[in-house]
UniProtKB/TrEMBL annotation:
Pfam family, one: PTS_EIIA_1
Residue ranges of the TM segments: none
Source organism of this protein record: Niallia circulans (Bacillus circulans)
Record flagged with keyword Thylakoid: no
Main location: cytoplasm
PANTHER family in alphabetical order: PTS SYSTEM GLUCOSE-SPECIFIC EIIA COMPONENT (PTHR45008)
Domain of life from the UniProt record: Bacteria
Organismal lineage: Bacteria, Bacillati, Bacillota, Bacilli, Bacillales
Protein name: PTS glucose transporter subunit IIA
GO BP annotations listed: phosphoenolpyruvate-dependent sugar phosphotransferase system
């Protein structure tokens, strides 16, 4: 029997940086049960202080929602990630959002994905809170979360997923 079988596969860690600049909070504090109760998956949320969403890690862009308020990514190790800008922002029909990537693009940590008008979101959405969710959380053996009063987009580590 080989050592690989004896000890199992080597653990892979995916390190997520904050997708936005702002306060990093627990997903359970998102005022929407779909996120707070982790129906979509586990993760963190950001209360943004700036209207830029960056790639939290090296990934492939899977989907940009037609209303530009959300983006789906896939990490190099197969984790599927949803970044949902604000709550009830789907009702804004893309107004105030500018997308800088297309499905199929490969992005590096910190690369600009979407810009949005934070004031417009404050006026028109239920909340500016932006969840980052690992959709296929079942692949994650352990998820370490780091909360911060002020995290900088593309800089602060917010999640470490062991898969």
């Amino acid at each position: 029997m080989g050592l690989g079988k004896l000890f199992g596969k080597k653990e892979i860690k995916e390190i997520f940086k904050s997708p936005l600049t702002g306060k990093i909070i627990p997903i359970e504090e998102v005022p929407d049960p779909a996120f707070a109760e982790k129906m979509m998956g586990d993760g963190i949320a950001v209360i943004p202080t700036a209207g830029k969403v960056v790639a939290p890690l090296n990934a492939k862009v899977l989907q940009v929602f037609p209303t530009k308020h959300a983006i789906g990514l896939e990490s190099e190790n197969g984790l599927e990630i949803l970044i949902h800008i604000g709550l009830d922002t789907v009702n804004m029909h893309g107004e105030g959002f500018t997308v800088h990537v297309n499905p199929g693009d490969y992005v590096k940590t910190g690369e600009l994905l979407i810009e949005f008008n934070l004031d417009l979101v404050k006026e028109n959405a239920t909340s500016t809170i932006t969840p980052l969710v690992i959709i296929n959380s079942d692949k994650v053996k352990k998820l370490e979360k780091q909360y911060k009063q002020q995290g900088e987009a593309g800089v602060e580590e917010v999640l470490i997923a062991s898969i």
